[in-house]
Amino acid sequence: MTYTSTKVLTFDEFVSQYGDNPRYELIDGELRDMEPTGPHEAVTGQIIGYIFVEILRSHRNWIVPKNCLIKPPAMAATVLRPDAIVLDETKLSQEPLWQKEPIICNGSTIQLVVEVVSTNWQDDYARKMEEYALLGIPEYWIVDYLGIGGIAFIGKPKQPTITVCQLVGDSYSQQQFRLGESISSPTFPELKLRLDDLIPR
To answer: Which InterPro entries match (predicted)?
Structure first.
């Protein structure tokens, strides 16, 4: 991840200039280039596929949009772009920007967010965890398929890890899953998924 501009952008400027470009998000007015790699996008696609199949199987009124931004209400110059997001379709009518832009403002619309870790692991494990908890998003996955997060987050020795965060009160409880282990998801209790299924070959 790189910081591509010293100019501070507003929410409106970011949406106008970079809203359709999946490389970028905005943190406190700073443009962040998330530099997605081929393997990163392959892992993201696999995750979306597993989630989508489970939504269809369980007949829920949920969707997984191709491109979606999150605008935390308390942060005027922050626009997050999760790698995957699950939305409650029945609540989209309460979203003030949705009809014109794929932007979510209400955490209650979001069932799950997923971040696939790359060079921006500090944001995924710290800043975004805080923002998603403040929004009241019930579940957050951090998919660190390279095992590059800090030792404080994934332990020592470092290894590929999926961290499933469940909102309890106003913060997340965390459970980690390593290679060979099936994840446990409160949002998708019937989901059969292991980190092994996601690792690029």
So the answer is: Nuclease_put_TT1808, Restrct_endonuc-II-like, Uma2
14 Cβ partners below 8 Å, 6+ apart? 24, 26, 31, 77, 79
Record the pTM: 0.93
Which residue is associated with the tokens 């070959």?
A: 201
Tens of pLDDT, residues 82-120: 999 999 999 999 999 999 999 999 999 999 999 999 887
Residue for token pair 């909102």: 167
Sheet holding 62-63, edge to edge: 62-63, 84-88, 110-116, 139-144, 161-168, 171-177
- Confidence label for 2 from pLDDT (cuts 50, 70 and 90): very low
Going by C-alpha positions, the residue among 118, 113, 122 that lies closest to residue 40 is: 118
Residues 113 and 83: their CA atoms lie apart, in Å, by: 8
Helix (H) or strand (E) holding 121: helix 121-122
Q: In what order do the strands lie in the sheet with 2-3?
A: 2-3, 30-33, 24-27
Of 29, 112, 105, 111, the closest CA to residue 74 belongs to 105
Q: Residue 199 corresponds to which tokens in the numbers above?
A: 């690792």
Domain boundaries, the chain: 37-69+81-197
At 134-148, the pLDDT tens digits run 999 999 999 999 999
Q: Are 114 and 47 in contact (CB under 8 A)?
A: yes
How many residues are recorded in the chain? 201
